[in-house]
Amino acid sequence: MQNTRMGKITNSADVFRYGGLRLVAVFFAFLAAACCMHWRSPAAAPNSSAESFAGQPLLLRAIELESRADGAEALREAIQAYEEVLDMAPGNLEALDKLGHLYLLLGDGYEMSRAKKKACFIKAIQCNERAMFYGNRDFQKRISAGARLWESLPALTLNEMGAMHFWATGIFYYYKECLGFFGQIIHFRWIVRARMVMERMSELDPDWGRGMLHFNWGCYYLAIPESLGGDRKKARASFARAIDLGPEFMIFRWGRAKYFHFKMRDAESFKEDLRWVAAQNIADFADPYPWRVFFRKDAAFMLENFDYYFHGRK
């Protein structure tokens, strides 16, 4: 495995320290090599400060493309336009912020293969790391001195809340979609690190994003085993709090149906939330446009395939 400027992931064989388990260690190391969480940090990019970007037309073009990205190809085109901005200005915060969540949408909503999902989630994580690095000089100094992201959290401020949010979301997506059973066991430490980031966010503003942080906590409490801190009651309360704080967002009801109601096998609540999402005029909501389009389409898809989700029938 690789060391990065933002984080160090040790070889999976470190888990097995006793001679009788050496063969098992080799087996696990082989599995982890195929699906380990590692990436090269972009923190050492040429410039070290946020840039306003002189080539404004490129940025305006990217924003325009994003505003009408209503499917996979249009989304890829918008992403490519923001990447062209970064080619000229690696520290442009607006492009980094946008890519930090658009890559998540592409990976979760449109890509089908594990390899392509993995590439998208890693790109999202990297963009959010870069946004923190370029946007906060104190954080930048700590990382440049060798500290890891989760060791540098006291330096992060309200200005980096979006990057922290989507960094943690990227970790959750990668963990769930790109690691197998054994990979999840070996790399559970990354869920702990994502939780540390969310705890820092809660210290700064527990109601941040009009419910976005509560939504992430709901996903966290729902996803992990109760023996490791999962809590279905807290998950339910977190999703409800997000909806109360942010009625102008589609993501909360969509996510509550897709994650909470599905996992709890609550078919009627699942359909109720999804029907609400599918019936909305997306112009009335505050989620980024590409996400609004996806939420409504995905809600309709899940309703059409209800029997598959709850009864295993197509």
Count of DSSP H/I helices? 15
Computed over alpha carbons, the radius of gyration is: 20 Å
Which bin fits the share of residues in helices? 55-70%
First-last Cα distance: 41 Å
Structural class: mainly alpha
Main sheet properties: none
Report low-confidence residues grouped into runs of 5 or more: 1-5, 8-40, 42-49
Q: Could you tell me the strand content as a percent range? A: under 5%
Shape: globular
Number of strands: 0
Output the helix-strand order: HHHHHHHHHHHHHHH
Tell me the number of structural domains.
2
Mean pLDDT: 87
List keywords for this structure.
314 residues, disordered N terminus, Serine Threonine Protein Phosphatase 5, Tetratricopeptide repeat
Can you put this structure into words, describing what you see?
The model is unreliable at 1-5, 8-40 and 42-49 (pLDDT under 50). The protein is globular, with a radius of gyration of 20 Å. 65% of the residues lie in helices and 0% in strands. With 314 residues, it is mainly alpha-helical. It has helices at residues 22-35, 56-67, 72-88, 93-110, 114-135, 137-144, 161-178, 181-186, 189-204, 212-223, 232-245, 251-263, 267-278, 289-304, 306-311. It folds into 2 domains: 43-197; 206-314, Serine Threonine Protein Phosphatase 5, Tetratricopeptide repeat (Alpha Horseshoe), CATH 1.25.40.920. The chain contains 15 helices and no strands. Helix 13 (267-278) crosses helix 14.
